[in-house]
Amino acid sequence: MSPELTHTAPLFVVLNACSGRSDAADTRTLIAKELDASGREHHIAVIERGMQIADGARRAVEQAMAQGGAVVAAGGDGTINAVAQEAHDAGCPMGVLPQGTFNYFSRTHGIPTETTEAVRALMSSRVEPVQVGLVNENVFLVNASLGLYPALLEDREQFKQRFGRHRIVALIAALATMLREHRQLRLRIELGDAVRDVRTPTLFVGNNRLQLEQVGIPEAPALDRGRVAAVMLKPVSTWAMLRLLLHGALGTLGDADGVETFQFQRMTVAPSLPYGRRRTKVAADGEVRWMRAPLEFRVSPKPLYLLKPIDDAVSADGQIGVPSQRGA
After folding, report:
1. Alpha-carbon span 215 to 160, nearest angstrom
2. Residue 27 falls in which region: left (phi positive, over 0), alpha (psi -120 to 50) or beta
3. Does this chain's domain 11-132+302-309 share its CATH topology with 139-299?
4. pLDDT greater than 70 at residue 158
């Protein structure tokens, strides 16, 4: 059963102090000011550097469930992912105040990227179920991958720490990653009754239509049918890899030679790992972590209940409606 939420339900905000370009204290003050002006009961937990976002998210979700409220993630895709993991597991309604660099998830669902506008939009929102991807039971709302893409994310984070959180910095980091030599992954992929062995520098699974459409993946519409899309690169030279990066920037990656794309609901991937090692690096929504192989990618049977801004969201009885499920 979908959760119900009144327009007076308390909000429990998890603010990542390390997300975005602005000072966390200023962001907290801005959020509190807008919520105070609306008369909405709220609680803001600031996650400082060195603290675990997952722990703060878990506490906020527990409080929201106990008091009939909603949890709100204020941060980038990684913060949203951590809060979504707890909210999805508990069936807790969740709002988003984007603070990241690309903000694919929030932009897909019409959530403003400017904080003041996002808070105001949150006040006129309704609960709408959206599709969740899982890799070994770990939530991903935008994408999950292994191989080259996790390496790119790690390089990007180092560049951002040195030069700031800007899109041009992310692009330069991507170029630097592409110019290095990368080992080829050996993967055994089980998709339905079919089993195949492949060599690839990276396997990317997308659960965000906006991102997939931007780089030109033809399977993007499949997300509206309860599926996710996979992108797999064939072994290519460094210069060919740079040409693929250009194709992605031009929105024609799906048409490029050396790229294979397909859609699915469930897929098992078994990487060939060094002797004695059973874990592999996986990136999920911009956060790199170690996961135990084999990896199972699938669409979750239950949605995330997102507070999505809609002008006429609140009905006459004060309940926030729940329309049909849509993709992330």
Report:
1. 22
2. alpha
3. no
4. no
Is the model's pLDDT at 181 over the cut of 60?
Answer: no
Confidence category of residue 276, pLDDT binned at 50, 70, 90: low
* Amino acid residing at 21: R
Proportion of the chain in helix, strand, coil states, percent, rounded to 5: 35, 30, 35
- The C-alpha atoms of residue 35 and residue 38 are separated, in whole angstroms, by 5
pLDDT at 261 over 60: yes
Domain 11-132+302-309 class in CATH: alpha beta
Q: What is the number of H-type helices and E-type strands within the chain?
A: 9, 18
Express as a percent the part of the chain with pLDDT over 70.
80
Rounded to an integer, what distance in angstroms lies between the CA atom of residue 41 and that of residue 52? 25
* Residue ranges covered by each domain of the chain: 11-132+302-309, 139-299
Give every strand in the sheet of 42-47, ordered side by side: 42-47, 11-16, 70-75, 94-98, 304-309, 125-130
Residue 163 structure tokens: 């030069």
CATH number, domain 139-299, options 2.60.200.40, 3.10.20.310, 3.40.50.720, 3.40.50.2300: 2.60.200.40
Identify whether the C-beta of residue 105 lies closer than 8 Å to the C-beta of residue 206: no
The helix-helix angle for 148-163 and 167-178 (nearest 10°) equals 130
| pLDDT of 98 strictly over 60 | yes
- For 119-132, what is the mean pLDDT? 94
